[in-house]
Amino acid sequence: MIEQNSNPPSSFSASPRFLPVLLVLFAGSGCSALIYEIVWLQLLQLVIGSTAVSLAVLLGTYMGGMCLGSLALPRFISARRHPLRVYALIELGIGIIGIAVLFGMPSVVRLYTASTGHGFMGILLRGAVSGICLLPPTMLMGATLPAIARWVETTPQGVSWLGFLYAGNTAGAVFGCLLAGFYLLRVHDMATATYAAAAINVTIALLGLGLAARSPHRAPAGDQRPGRAVRAPASWPVYVTIALSGLCALGAEVIWTRLLSLMLGATVYTFSIILAVFLAGLGIGSGIGSFLSRGKVPPRLALGCCQILLAAATAWTAYMLAKSLPYWPINPALSRSPWLSFQIDLVRCLWAILPAACLWGASFPLALAAVASPGQDGGRLVGRIYASNTVGAIVGAIGFSLLLIPTVGTQQAQRMLVGLSAIAALVMFASLLRPILADTLSRNAPRPSAIKTAAGVLLAVSTLLAALLAGSVPGVPWELIAFGRYLPTRTGNARLLYMGEGMNASVAVTELDGGIRNFHVSGRVEASSAAQDMRIQRMLGHIPALVHPKPRSVLVVGCGAGVTAGSFVLYPGVERIVICEIEPLIPKVVARYFGPENYDVLDDPRVHMVYDDARHYILTTQEKFDIITSDPIHPWIKGSATLYTKEYIELCKRHLNPGGIIVQWVPFYESTLDTVKSEIATFFDSLPNGTIWSNDFVGSGYDVLLLAQIGATSIDVDELQQRLERYDHQAIAISLQEIGFRSAVDLLATYAGQASDLKSWLKGAEINRDRNLRLQYLAGMGLNSYQSGLIYNDLISQSRFPEELFVGSEENRQALRKALGISK
After folding, report:
1. Residues 6 or more apart from 401 whose CB is under 8 A from it?
2. Nearest one of 408, 417, 365 to 244, comparing CA atoms
3. 282: how many CB neighbours lie within 10 A of its CB?
4. Predicted TM-score (pTM) of this structure
5. If you placed Cys at 188, which of 192, 329, 346, 465 could pair as Cys (CB 3.0 to 4.6 Å)?
């Protein structure tokens, strides 16, 4: 029951000697919170997908919970309770719920998959799942700072200590981000990371309870409702300003993370570095803002100046990301170790985003100081400012990722950030001038020209500065979207045909002098009309279609240039082709540039497009297929490892008809031997009758496809040759001839091994599972490795001729044996 009393609480405070201890405790809170955030978002993405909509729902729920927690604590928890004890119990609750989320997720998955669908109702269900999992712990996280704020007086010195506690919390978050991204999840798994975070929570709770026992709490007099605040006059401008600050901070983080990942490589390590730098800036800025809040500068003036400086800092970052950083003379292929590359990436992130992050960090303690007055309930003070900032952050994260970037692009979105920061500054400056003007008018005195001049000049200068800064924001260069981290070292001429910034990715289509067209996504070539790429793209379609006796339904994971999906168009027996693509721009625009290569697949009436994360689609659909062929983006790109896990392969098996075939693309380039072994071992762990087929273009392995059939696989070389020679398969024969296959023997000569031959070779390989996503951490380390030849030769050395796989006439079998060059 809520205790009620109209009297405000008396002023009380912690002993100054305990404040450094609180700083340490709050650093621990921040550390565990970031570990949980990374683990929970990763776990939930496995369930509801990795689309921009899913991520927006997740972030909105996560930050919404923190907002609710910051508002709820001072309203429902009595100010008479010892703040440290409340804080300790909250930390204990976070740890308990953190463990519960880890073990309760399978039940949530079953509930979700039994009732979900696509469209608006599907989005609502994603939000419901996120809410069930994230709201309880995030509400507790949001309540930690308001809880401890009640132990600090709302004097200028006390409020500055609240800023330092926020800075300490952010510093701990930086450590937690790096600890999770570079150690706990790279070396261990999500369960271990969760246990580590929970152990931190329990340690903090015990220390908090012990500290509470040693420092009696001087409760307010009387039996009263917690924290009825004495509001400072005209406090709404501060709330508006800090909300706009939060909106700009999260909007900028969305934009800058996308642009930085283009030039650094979109690995899990890159995202950890970017987030760590952003958080470090918030922590540094919060410390600076806390010092300023003690000084003689009025907090509202300092807060307004922060916002106008943020307009300049945003323009600085936009310029650096478009005109400077992409052209630094850095060749990532020269790095002898990924750890050296991480150091360079860290420097570039610091150079670009640290100034703005520091200013956003300084805004929080300045906003606290701007509305604080002695005798307030510190919990309510912090809760309101924190909630305002978080509401703005929710709007920024969702609005920029789902609406602004796909509709107006990153250039216009950054111009809006500059304008919004300037508006926040004007709100604060206007709130400073208003009392002066009102006081003058109340005395019936003529309006002083100095006030009119000051107000006019201030507004004019701020408006003009914002306009100039917004106009200076450059657009993202198409070369960055196309070539990413290799932009400074690229050679040859390329002509831009198309560039677009979609909801989930930025894409480009270019054409070389020889007429070869390339499709670029995330700063790399994903598909092309070059002979080497055409070969594997069509193999992903033709080989399963020819191995299967009579395919009728096909699921293609990843549209790309549409070449793989287009290969199935040539088979008259195929009745339904489902293409699952996460980025709508790719099928709608990009695939049209490859019409001759993909046989205008998107115009075929048998084709059905699904815009969703492929894993989420397979998890929620009831449909089964004869063939599922997966050509996802490279496994070093964050999120793609979910399409290589043992659980994903098992999921695909359940959606295959009897005798169905599953195919998985595996790249050897930009990879390491350990990475490739992990991909192959994971596939064979679920499909022990699997085989490998190599894109051995000009005698060198470049990438391969893994193929497995439900049940025993037997390929009749004679029958396959006859199928290729039939008149109604003439188009198929031509399609194969264009990529160098003129007979069944030519096609089958791409065989490179099977699971039974590779047991010793794969011994000790990491199995990529949902709970560890080991592959994305292995692949991220091999981002700049080019060992495809060595990997291919090592693989081929294990191969034997599969007597039981290839059947038919002895003549064709001997020809195939000769073509394979296998004597064993």
Report:
1. 52, 55, 56, 254, 503
2. 417
3. 26
4. 0.90
5. 192
The answer for 265, left when phi > 0, alpha when psi is -120 to 50, beta otherwise, is left
Q: CA torsion 307→310→314→319, rounded to 10°? A: 130
DSSP 525: E
Indicate whether 734 pLDDT > 80. Answer: yes
Measured between alpha carbons, how far is 667 from 84 in angstroms, rounded to an integer?
A: 54
Q: What is the pLDDT of residue 619?
A: 86
Instruction: Measure the CA–CA gap between 674 and 776, rounded to whole angstroms.
Output: 12
CA distance 473 to 318: 6
Distance CA 418, CA 468 (A): 10
Q: What are phi and psi of 661, to 5 degrees?
A: -125, 140
Going by C-alpha positions, the residue among 389, 383, 390, 388 that lies closest to residue 79 is 383
Strand partners, 508: 499, 520
Can you list the pairs that 430-435 forms with residues at least 24 positions away whose Cβ atoms lie under 8 Å?
Answer: 430/237, 430/455, 430/459, 431/234, 431/237, 431/238, 431/300, 432/298, 432/300, 432/301, 432/304, 433/458, 434/234, 435/233, 435/234
Residues in a beta bridge with 510: 496, 518
Q: Cα angle vertex 787, ends 785, 790, to 5°?
A: 160
- pLDDT at residue 23 greater than cutoff 90: no
Residue labelled with tokens 């304008």 = 419
pLDDT tens figures, 324-368: 999 999 888 888 788 999 999 999 999 999 999 999 999 999 998
Phi-psi bin for 605: left (phi > 0), alpha (psi -120 to 50), beta?
alpha
User: Which SS3 state, helix, strand or coil, does residue 335 take?
Assistant: coil
Q: Is 805 helix (H, G, I), strand (E, B) or coil?
A: coil
Q: Are 153 and 11 in contact (CB under 8 A)?
A: yes
Residue 118 CB partners (closer than 8 Å, separation 6+) = 610, 612, 620
- State how beta strands 751-754 and 691-694 pair: antiparallel
HSE value, Cβ hemisphere, 13 Å, CA-based, for 549: 9
CB atoms within 10 A of CB 471: 10
> Which one-letter DSSP state was computed for residue 50?
S
Q: What does the alpha-carbon distance between residue 691 and residue 758 come to, in Å, rounded to a whole number?
A: 10
Q: Which of 113, 131, 154 is nearest to 57 (CA)?
A: 131
DSSP character for 767? P
Measure CA 165 to chain center. 28
